[in-house]
């Protein structure tokens, strides 16, 4: 599945950079998701997969008056990936169209790369949090369907608590069924 992700509407001033800064936050990117599932019955499936929630980029200029950053440009890139385990419930309307919901656990790892002037570094964070979503599915024959889905990954970072936050996704994908 390929889709679109946005960080939870965060204002750049909330990122927690000290001193005076002028900032820009690009919190939209592509999502890549690969899922494997086992159908328990016509309405319930168990899922396992890999998800790359994309990259969030932050660019700022610090005046150097704070205790962390020197005067000059500050940039940061945050990438979050992980694996999920969950269940999906299908609610068919007819033989070719239906709705579904998904929920489960998302084991994630986030890496924040920061540079300021000539210095650079990175901070890692990880956790296991819930995800949930709803979607619509259009069957395209016996072994494939087209899916449109809205999902939320409720991330709670320990090392990066202000930056790692909920991620909302909209995905359009193809589901292939094995016979």
């Amino acid at each position: 599945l390929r889709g679109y992700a946005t960080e939870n509407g965060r204002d750049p001033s909330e990122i927690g950079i000290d001193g005076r800064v002028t900032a820009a936050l690009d919190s939209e990117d592509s999502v890549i998701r690969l899922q494997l599932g086992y159908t328990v019955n016509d309405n319930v499936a168990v899922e396992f997969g890999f998800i790359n929630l994309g990259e969030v980029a932050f660019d700022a200029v610090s005046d150097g008056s704070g205790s962390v950053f020197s005067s000059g440009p500050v940039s940061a890139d945050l990438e979050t990936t992980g694996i999920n385990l969950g269940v999906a419930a299908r609610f068919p309307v007819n033989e070719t169209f239906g709705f579904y919901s998904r929920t489960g656990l998302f084991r994630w790892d986030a890496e924040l790369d920061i540079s300021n002037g000539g210095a650079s570094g990175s901070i890692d964070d990880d956790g296991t949090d819930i995800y949930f979503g709803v979607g619509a599915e259009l069957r395209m024959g016996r072994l494939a369907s087209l899916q449109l889905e809205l999902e939320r990954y409720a991330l709670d970072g320990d090392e990066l608590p202000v930056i790692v936050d909920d991620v909302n996704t909209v995905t359009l994908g193809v589901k292939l069924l094995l016979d």
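The chain has no helices and nine strands. The longest strand covers residues 72-92.
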